Amino acid sequence: MKRIQEIALFLMAVLLVACNNSNQFTVDGKLQNAKDLKKVVLYRQDKAIDSAVLNENQEFRFKVASADPDFYYIVANDKNYLFVASNGDELTFTADYTDKLNEYNIEGSDVAEKLKEFNKISNRYGKIYLDIQNEYQDKLSRNPALKDSLEQVLIPRFEKNMKEFSDISVKFANENKDNLAGFYAIGSLDPVKYEAELIRYADDIKGKFPNNKPVADFVARMEKAKGISVGQKAPDFESSSVTGAPVKLSDFKGKYVLLDFWASWCGPCRQENPNIVKQYQAFKNKNFTILSVSLDDTRDKWLKAIKDDKLDWNHVSDLNQWNSKVAKQYQVESIPASFLLDPQGKILAKNLRGSELEDFLKGILK
Protein backbone atom coordinates (compact mmCIF):
# COMPACT_ATOMS: atom_id res chain seq x y z
CA MET A 1 0.00 0.00 0.00
CA LYS A 2 2.80 2.36 0.94
CA ARG A 3 4.50 1.66 -2.40
CA ILE A 4 1.30 2.51 -4.28
CA GLN A 5 1.05 5.84 -2.42
CA GLU A 6 4.66 6.69 -3.31
CA ILE A 7 3.98 5.95 -6.98
CA ALA A 8 0.85 8.09 -6.86
CA LEU A 9 2.73 11.02 -5.35
CA PHE A 10 5.46 10.69 -7.98
CA LEU A 11 2.90 10.69 -10.80
CA MET A 12 1.24 13.79 -9.35
CA ALA A 13 4.60 15.59 -9.27
CA VAL A 14 5.28 14.65 -12.87
CA LEU A 15 1.80 15.82 -13.84
CA LEU A 16 2.31 19.18 -12.12
CA VAL A 17 5.59 19.74 -13.98
CA ALA A 18 4.00 18.70 -17.26
CA CYS A 19 1.17 21.17 -16.67
CA ASN A 20 3.47 24.22 -16.47
CA ASN A 21 2.05 26.69 -18.96
CA SER A 22 4.53 27.04 -21.81
CA ASN A 23 2.43 29.85 -23.27
CA GLN A 24 3.17 32.31 -20.47
CA PHE A 25 5.46 33.04 -17.55
CA THR A 26 4.50 33.79 -13.96
CA VAL A 27 5.97 36.06 -11.32
CA ASP A 28 5.02 35.50 -7.69
CA GLY A 29 6.19 38.58 -5.81
CA LYS A 30 6.42 39.96 -2.31
CA LEU A 31 7.28 43.60 -1.65
CA GLN A 32 8.08 43.99 2.03
CA ASN A 33 7.58 47.25 3.92
CA ALA A 34 5.52 48.70 1.08
CA LYS A 35 3.40 50.66 3.58
CA ASP A 36 0.40 52.16 1.79
CA LEU A 37 1.34 50.90 -1.68
CA LYS A 38 -1.74 49.35 -3.26
CA LYS A 39 -0.49 48.02 -6.59
CA VAL A 40 2.52 47.42 -8.80
CA VAL A 41 2.74 47.79 -12.57
CA LEU A 42 4.51 45.50 -15.02
CA TYR A 43 6.34 47.05 -17.97
CA ARG A 44 7.70 45.29 -21.04
CA GLN A 45 10.63 47.52 -21.97
CA ASP A 46 8.99 50.98 -21.76
CA LYS A 47 5.32 49.99 -22.11
CA ALA A 48 2.95 49.17 -19.23
CA ILE A 49 1.28 45.82 -19.95
CA ASP A 50 -0.28 44.75 -16.65
CA SER A 51 -0.86 45.68 -13.01
CA ALA A 52 -1.42 43.71 -9.83
CA VAL A 53 -2.97 44.57 -6.46
CA LEU A 54 -0.96 43.72 -3.35
CA ASN A 55 -2.78 41.50 -0.86
CA GLU A 56 -2.65 41.88 2.93
CA ASN A 57 0.73 40.10 2.94
CA GLN A 58 2.11 42.52 0.32
CA GLU A 59 2.14 39.74 -2.28
CA PHE A 60 1.19 39.89 -5.94
CA ARG A 61 1.24 37.76 -9.09
CA PHE A 62 1.69 38.34 -12.81
CA LYS A 63 0.91 35.96 -15.66
CA VAL A 64 2.19 37.14 -19.04
CA ALA A 65 2.83 35.67 -22.49
CA SER A 66 6.33 36.24 -23.87
CA ALA A 67 7.35 34.02 -26.76
CA ASP A 68 10.89 35.39 -26.75
CA PRO A 69 13.10 36.45 -23.82
CA ASP A 70 12.51 40.11 -23.07
CA PHE A 71 13.14 42.81 -20.49
CA TYR A 72 10.45 43.51 -17.91
CA TYR A 73 10.20 45.97 -15.01
CA ILE A 74 8.12 45.71 -11.88
CA VAL A 75 7.36 49.34 -11.05
CA ALA A 76 6.26 50.41 -7.57
CA ASN A 77 5.85 54.19 -7.51
CA ASP A 78 9.41 55.52 -7.93
CA LYS A 79 11.04 52.08 -7.60
CA ASN A 80 11.60 49.72 -10.48
CA TYR A 81 13.00 46.20 -10.62
CA LEU A 82 14.35 44.70 -13.83
CA PHE A 83 14.14 41.06 -14.87
CA VAL A 84 14.22 38.93 -18.00
CA ALA A 85 11.51 36.37 -18.73
CA SER A 86 9.99 34.18 -21.43
CA ASN A 87 7.20 31.61 -21.65
CA GLY A 88 7.54 28.73 -19.24
CA ASP A 89 9.46 30.65 -16.55
CA GLU A 90 8.09 30.46 -13.01
CA LEU A 91 9.76 33.30 -11.16
CA THR A 92 9.71 34.40 -7.55
CA PHE A 93 10.46 38.01 -6.65
CA THR A 94 11.22 39.55 -3.26
CA ALA A 95 12.33 43.05 -2.30
CA ASP A 96 12.32 45.48 0.59
CA TYR A 97 10.59 48.65 -0.58
CA THR A 98 12.62 50.73 1.90
CA ASP A 99 16.01 49.53 0.62
CA LYS A 100 17.89 52.64 -0.55
CA LEU A 101 20.12 50.59 -2.86
CA ASN A 102 17.04 49.16 -4.56
CA GLU A 103 18.28 45.61 -4.10
CA TYR A 104 15.94 42.74 -4.91
CA ASN A 105 15.94 39.02 -5.52
CA ILE A 106 14.38 37.13 -8.42
CA GLU A 107 14.74 33.40 -9.01
CA GLY A 108 13.31 30.67 -11.20
CA SER A 109 15.30 30.68 -14.45
CA ASP A 110 18.91 30.56 -15.61
CA VAL A 111 18.74 34.12 -16.92
CA ALA A 112 17.22 35.31 -13.65
CA GLU A 113 20.16 33.81 -11.80
CA LYS A 114 22.61 35.48 -14.18
CA LEU A 115 20.90 38.83 -13.74
CA LYS A 116 20.93 38.34 -10.00
CA GLU A 117 24.67 37.67 -10.19
CA PHE A 118 25.31 40.87 -12.12
CA ASN A 119 23.06 42.93 -9.85
CA LYS A 120 25.18 41.84 -6.89
CA ILE A 121 28.25 43.12 -8.73
CA SER A 122 26.50 46.37 -9.63
CA ASN A 123 25.25 46.92 -6.09
CA ARG A 124 28.71 46.31 -4.64
CA TYR A 125 30.30 49.00 -6.77
CA GLY A 126 27.24 51.22 -6.41
CA LYS A 127 27.70 51.18 -2.64
CA ILE A 128 31.34 52.25 -3.03
CA TYR A 129 30.18 55.13 -5.21
CA LEU A 130 27.60 56.19 -2.62
CA ASP A 131 30.20 56.00 0.16
CA ILE A 132 32.54 58.27 -1.82
CA GLN A 133 29.71 60.68 -2.57
CA ASN A 134 28.56 60.77 1.06
CA GLU A 135 32.12 61.29 2.29
CA TYR A 136 32.54 64.21 -0.10
CA GLN A 137 29.27 65.87 0.88
CA ASP A 138 29.84 65.33 4.59
CA LYS A 139 33.35 66.79 4.63
CA LEU A 140 32.43 69.62 2.28
CA SER A 141 29.47 70.63 4.44
CA ARG A 142 31.77 70.89 7.45
CA ASN A 143 34.51 72.79 5.62
CA PRO A 144 33.71 74.19 2.14
CA ALA A 145 37.32 75.35 1.78
CA LEU A 146 38.35 71.71 1.36
CA LYS A 147 36.56 71.39 -1.99
CA ASP A 148 39.66 71.26 -4.23
CA SER A 149 41.69 69.01 -1.95
CA LEU A 150 38.73 66.66 -1.48
CA GLU A 151 38.28 66.36 -5.25
CA GLN A 152 41.97 65.61 -5.71
CA VAL A 153 41.65 62.69 -3.29
CA LEU A 154 38.16 61.40 -4.07
CA ILE A 155 37.99 61.73 -7.87
CA PRO A 156 40.80 59.16 -8.40
CA ARG A 157 38.95 56.79 -6.04
CA PHE A 158 35.74 57.34 -7.99
CA GLU A 159 37.50 56.74 -11.33
CA LYS A 160 39.20 53.59 -9.99
CA ASN A 161 35.84 52.25 -8.81
CA MET A 162 34.23 52.98 -12.18
CA LYS A 163 37.04 51.33 -14.12
CA GLU A 164 36.91 48.18 -11.99
CA PHE A 165 33.14 47.99 -12.40
CA SER A 166 33.37 48.57 -16.16
CA ASP A 167 36.07 45.93 -16.61
CA ILE A 168 34.03 43.37 -14.69
CA SER A 169 30.93 44.32 -16.71
CA VAL A 170 32.80 43.67 -19.96
CA LYS A 171 33.97 40.29 -18.69
CA PHE A 172 30.48 39.34 -17.52
CA ALA A 173 28.90 40.43 -20.81
CA ASN A 174 31.41 38.47 -22.88
CA GLU A 175 30.73 35.36 -20.79
CA ASN A 176 26.97 35.72 -21.29
CA LYS A 177 26.50 36.54 -24.96
CA ASP A 178 23.82 33.87 -25.23
CA ASN A 179 21.42 35.58 -22.81
CA LEU A 180 20.00 39.02 -22.11
CA ALA A 181 21.80 39.34 -18.79
CA GLY A 182 24.99 39.84 -20.78
CA PHE A 183 23.32 42.49 -22.92
CA TYR A 184 22.11 44.26 -19.76
CA ALA A 185 25.65 44.26 -18.37
CA ILE A 186 27.22 45.73 -21.51
CA GLY A 187 24.67 48.55 -21.32
CA SER A 188 26.24 49.79 -18.08
CA LEU A 189 29.39 50.92 -19.90
CA ASP A 190 30.35 54.48 -20.79
CA PRO A 191 29.64 54.53 -24.56
CA VAL A 192 32.54 56.93 -25.17
CA LYS A 193 35.30 55.19 -23.21
CA TYR A 194 34.20 51.68 -24.17
CA GLU A 195 33.12 52.23 -27.75
CA ALA A 196 35.43 49.51 -29.13
CA GLU A 197 34.12 46.93 -26.64
CA LEU A 198 30.52 47.85 -27.46
CA ILE A 199 31.10 47.52 -31.20
CA ARG A 200 32.73 44.09 -30.78
CA TYR A 201 29.90 42.93 -28.54
CA ALA A 202 27.28 44.10 -31.04
CA ASP A 203 29.02 42.13 -33.80
CA ASP A 204 29.08 39.02 -31.61
CA ILE A 205 25.36 39.06 -30.69
CA LYS A 206 24.08 40.09 -34.12
CA GLY A 207 21.16 37.81 -35.02
CA LYS A 208 20.97 36.11 -31.61
CA PHE A 209 17.88 37.95 -30.36
CA PRO A 210 16.03 38.77 -33.62
CA ASN A 211 12.74 39.83 -32.01
CA ASN A 212 14.17 41.99 -29.23
CA LYS A 213 13.91 45.69 -30.07
CA PRO A 214 16.53 47.01 -27.58
CA VAL A 215 19.07 44.53 -28.92
CA ALA A 216 18.20 45.36 -32.53
CA ASP A 217 18.50 49.10 -31.82
CA PHE A 218 21.84 48.59 -30.07
CA VAL A 219 23.27 46.51 -32.92
CA ALA A 220 22.12 49.07 -35.50
CA ARG A 221 23.59 51.95 -33.48
CA MET A 222 26.95 50.22 -33.11
CA GLU A 223 27.00 49.35 -36.81
CA LYS A 224 26.54 53.03 -37.57
CA ALA A 225 29.22 53.99 -35.02
CA LYS A 226 31.86 51.85 -36.74
CA GLY A 227 32.44 54.50 -39.41
CA ILE A 228 33.59 57.06 -36.86
CA SER A 229 35.32 54.76 -34.38
CA VAL A 230 39.01 54.85 -33.45
CA GLY A 231 41.08 53.41 -36.28
CA GLN A 232 38.69 54.48 -39.05
CA LYS A 233 39.28 57.26 -41.54
CA ALA A 234 37.36 60.39 -40.55
CA PRO A 235 34.61 61.23 -43.07
CA ASP A 236 35.37 64.30 -45.13
CA PHE A 237 32.98 67.26 -45.07
CA GLU A 238 32.62 70.84 -46.19
CA SER A 239 31.21 73.73 -44.16
CA SER A 240 31.35 77.51 -43.99
CA SER A 241 34.12 79.43 -42.23
CA VAL A 242 33.68 82.66 -40.25
CA THR A 243 34.02 84.57 -43.53
CA GLY A 244 31.55 82.33 -45.34
CA ALA A 245 34.26 80.66 -47.41
CA PRO A 246 33.97 76.86 -47.81
CA VAL A 247 36.36 74.75 -45.72
CA LYS A 248 36.92 71.01 -46.07
CA LEU A 249 38.36 68.66 -43.50
CA SER A 250 40.60 67.24 -46.23
CA ASP A 251 42.20 70.71 -46.55
CA PHE A 252 44.20 69.80 -43.44
CA LYS A 253 45.52 66.48 -44.67
CA GLY A 254 49.16 66.03 -43.65
CA LYS A 255 48.62 67.49 -40.17
CA TYR A 256 47.44 66.14 -36.85
CA VAL A 257 43.98 67.67 -36.43
CA LEU A 258 41.78 68.09 -33.39
CA LEU A 259 38.23 68.16 -34.77
CA ASP A 260 36.40 69.96 -31.97
CA PHE A 261 32.59 70.25 -31.65
CA TRP A 262 31.41 73.08 -29.40
CA ALA A 263 29.05 76.09 -29.14
CA SER A 264 29.04 79.52 -27.54
CA TRP A 265 26.04 78.51 -25.37
CA CYS A 266 27.73 75.33 -24.07
CA GLY A 267 29.11 75.91 -20.56
CA PRO A 268 31.35 72.79 -20.43
CA CYS A 269 32.74 73.72 -23.86
CA ARG A 270 33.69 77.19 -22.71
CA GLN A 271 35.28 75.73 -19.57
CA GLU A 272 37.40 73.38 -21.69
CA ASN A 273 38.46 76.08 -24.17
CA PRO A 274 41.40 77.40 -22.06
CA ASN A 275 42.89 73.91 -22.09
CA ILE A 276 42.47 73.62 -25.85
CA VAL A 277 44.08 77.06 -26.30
CA LYS A 278 46.98 75.90 -24.12
CA GLN A 279 47.52 72.77 -26.21
CA TYR A 280 47.24 74.68 -29.46
CA GLN A 281 49.93 77.13 -28.38
CA ALA A 282 52.16 74.27 -27.22
CA PHE A 283 51.90 72.11 -30.34
CA LYS A 284 50.89 74.35 -33.27
CA ASN A 285 54.50 74.33 -34.53
CA LYS A 286 54.67 70.54 -34.40
CA ASN A 287 52.36 69.75 -37.31
CA PHE A 288 49.24 70.15 -35.19
CA THR A 289 46.13 72.24 -35.79
CA ILE A 290 42.49 72.52 -34.73
CA LEU A 291 39.29 72.69 -36.73
CA SER A 292 36.31 73.69 -34.58
CA VAL A 293 32.73 72.94 -35.63
CA SER A 294 30.20 75.14 -33.86
CA LEU A 295 26.63 74.11 -33.07
CA ASP A 296 25.58 77.73 -32.74
CA ASP A 297 22.56 79.19 -34.49
CA THR A 298 23.51 82.86 -34.14
CA ARG A 299 26.50 84.19 -36.05
CA ASP A 300 27.21 87.12 -33.70
CA LYS A 301 27.31 84.95 -30.58
CA TRP A 302 29.53 82.42 -32.36
CA LEU A 303 32.06 85.07 -33.44
CA LYS A 304 32.02 86.78 -30.04
CA ALA A 305 32.81 83.50 -28.25
CA ILE A 306 35.71 82.84 -30.63
CA LYS A 307 37.13 86.29 -29.86
CA ASP A 308 36.46 86.19 -26.11
CA ASP A 309 38.02 82.74 -25.67
CA LYS A 310 40.96 83.56 -27.99
CA LEU A 311 40.35 80.55 -30.25
CA ASP A 312 42.99 81.40 -32.83
CA TRP A 313 42.43 78.59 -35.35
CA ASN A 314 40.03 77.52 -38.11
CA HIS A 315 36.28 77.51 -37.42
CA VAL A 316 33.23 76.35 -39.38
CA SER A 317 29.49 76.25 -38.77
CA ASP A 318 26.24 76.00 -40.72
CA LEU A 319 24.52 77.74 -37.76
CA ASN A 320 21.89 74.99 -37.45
CA GLN A 321 22.64 73.98 -33.86
CA TRP A 322 21.76 70.25 -33.40
CA ASN A 323 20.71 70.05 -37.05
CA SER A 324 24.32 70.66 -38.06
CA LYS A 325 25.12 68.35 -40.97
CA VAL A 326 28.64 67.76 -39.70
CA ALA A 327 27.45 66.96 -36.18
CA LYS A 328 24.96 64.44 -37.56
CA GLN A 329 27.64 62.96 -39.83
CA TYR A 330 29.84 62.41 -36.78
CA GLN A 331 26.90 61.29 -34.59
CA VAL A 332 27.56 64.02 -32.05
CA GLU A 333 24.80 63.88 -29.43
CA SER A 334 26.46 65.98 -26.73
CA ILE A 335 29.17 68.62 -26.59
CA PRO A 336 32.02 69.17 -26.10
CA ALA A 337 33.02 66.32 -28.38
CA SER A 338 36.26 65.84 -30.28
CA PHE A 339 38.14 63.57 -32.67
CA LEU A 340 41.93 63.56 -32.91
CA LEU A 341 43.09 62.69 -36.43
CA ASP A 342 46.51 61.67 -37.76
CA PRO A 343 48.04 63.24 -40.91
CA GLN A 344 46.27 60.63 -43.08
CA GLY A 345 42.90 61.48 -41.56
CA LYS A 346 42.61 58.34 -39.40
CA ILE A 347 40.87 58.72 -36.03
CA LEU A 348 43.44 58.23 -33.25
CA ALA A 349 41.31 59.11 -30.21
CA LYS A 350 37.99 60.63 -29.22
CA ASN A 351 36.85 63.07 -26.55
CA LEU A 352 40.22 63.75 -24.96
CA ARG A 353 39.95 66.56 -22.43
CA GLY A 354 42.09 68.24 -19.80
CA SER A 355 45.32 66.43 -19.03
CA GLU A 356 44.29 63.49 -21.23
CA LEU A 357 44.59 65.67 -24.34
CA GLU A 358 47.93 67.10 -23.26
CA ASP A 359 49.39 63.67 -22.43
CA PHE A 360 48.21 62.17 -25.72
CA LEU A 361 49.65 65.04 -27.77
CA LYS A 362 52.96 64.81 -25.92
CA GLY A 363 53.09 61.13 -26.81
CA ILE A 364 52.61 61.61 -30.57
CA LEU A 365 54.10 65.08 -31.16
CA LYS A 366 57.64 64.65 -29.83
Instruction: Tell me the number of strands.
Output: 15
The number of distinct structural domains comes to: 3
Whole-number mean pLDDT:
90
| Termini separation | 92 Å
Oligomer: single chain
Secondary structure class reads: alpha+beta
- Secondary-structure element sequence? HEEEEEEEEHHHHHEEEHEHEHEEH
Largest sheet entry? 5 strands, mixed
CATH topology of the largest domain: Glutaredoxin
Shape: elongated
Helix content: 40-55%
In spatial order, strands of the major sheet run 13-12-11-14-15
CATH architecture type of the largest domain: 3-Layer(aba) Sandwich
Task: Give descriptors for this structure.
Glutaredoxin; disordered N terminus; 5-stranded mixed β-sheet; 3 domains; elongated; 366 residues; alpha+beta; Immunoglobulin-like
